[in-house]
Amino acid sequence: MTPLFRSLIADDMQAVDRVIRTRLHSDVVLIRQVSEYIISAGGKRLRPALTLLSGQACGYRGEHLFELAAMVECIHTATLLHDDVVDESELRRGRETANALFGNAASVLVGDFLYTRAFQMMVTTDNMRILQVMAEATNIIAEGEVLQLLNIGNADVDETAYLQVIEYKTAKLFEAACRVGALLAGADAATETALADYGRYLGCAFQIIDDVLDYSGDAETIGKSLGDDLAEGKPTLPLIYTMKHGSPEEAECVRQAITHASRDHFQQVLSAVQSCGALGYAHQAAVQASQKAIAAIAGLPESDALRAMRELADYAVNRQS
Q1: 207: which of 166, 247, 277, 311 fits an S-S bond (Cβ 3.0–4.6 Å)?
Q2: Burial 238-269 (b: 16+ CB within 10 A, else e)
């Protein structure tokens, strides 16, 4: 059975995809090739879905919403292109990454094209507030990427620092995706804030579950190799918890793996993470964030869009990929 957050906006998402394909057209062949490769990979399209649902929750049904949703997806795709180069990733969504196929230079430059095209798209709304929101969001996302880079190989990163990274790197675009939908609809300040808070909490929940799946998922299902975060030296919540609450041997095993950015001892790290309750702790942290997301929109008028958003918050923490 198709979940409500998919079925409710299925036709609109097709319209968004058409906008993306139209907007990413370029006379430069390589840009077309890389863009089409990324678009055809599919993905969850959660961020544009949030823009659609937020606009609809505020009563807006115009075509400008498709343009904004496509813009949000272009920004997200640009960050993925750059992320994969920085992380030296070879697999995403079960396929070769663009950098593995086309090279790092092409990925970085096409990522730049996507960013700049996204700003061209948001200008079409002729709404200065939307421009302000997206300019701030993209700047904070970049700060989050740099913060994450600084944390690579640092086994002393604590939970507070980890949460700051995911709020900047992931949750900020979820928040912006919801906020621009409300702004386009002309929602009042309280409604705009409620939807933005929903997006921010949802983004945090989503990223924490991503980090849990790196130690509990199925590689084929999640579309990347298990232990990728470990191999990149990223101190994620399950690892931070294990270093603090695991046995001295477990903590040291994780510490060494992060410090040396190595997958060599993945099985030992996996055993440590699983035996000390780290995955359960991280999952519960995601559930709490999801519940905050649902609470944030509790005061808004009931609608199919709002029901879909509550369902999406549950999906974010119960998914397997």
Answers
A1: 166
A2: bbbbbbeebeeebbebbbebbeeebbebbeeb
**pLDDT (tens digit, 9 = 90+) per residue, 229-241?**
888 899 999 999 9
Place of tokens 């057209």: 25
22-25: long-range contacts (C-beta < 8 A, 24 or more apart)? 23/70, 23/74, 23/117, 23/120, 23/121, 24/74, 24/114, 24/117
What ranges make up the beta strands (E) of 226-292? none
How far apart CA 116 and CA 162 sit, in angstroms, is: 29
Identify the bridge partners of residue 91 per DSSP, sorted by sequence position: 96
Q: What is the pLDDT of residue 36?
A: 85
Residue type, 42: G
CB neighbours of residue 205 within 10 Å:
28
C-alpha–C-alpha distance, residues 17 and 38, integer Å: 12
> CA nearest 150: which of 86, 210, 92?
86
User: What residues form DSSP beta bridges with 95?
Assistant: 92
> What is the separation of C-alpha 99 from the centre of its chain, rounded to a whole number of angstroms?
19
Q: Which residue type sits at 59?
A: G
What are the angstrom distances between the C-alpha of 202 and each of 108, 164, 222, 237, 270?
Answer: 28, 15, 19, 16, 26
Q: Token pair of 186, please?
A: 């002309």
For the segment 246-298, what is each residue's pLDDT rounded down to a tens digit? 999 999 999 999 999 888 888 899 999 999 999 999 999 999 999 999 999 99
| Identity of the residue numbered 295 | A
- Rounded to an integer, the average pLDDT of 209-227 is 72
**Lowest mean pLDDT: which of 140-144, 221-225, 248-252?**
221-225
Q: Locate tokens 């409500």: which residue?
A: 4
pLDDT beyond 50 at 223: no
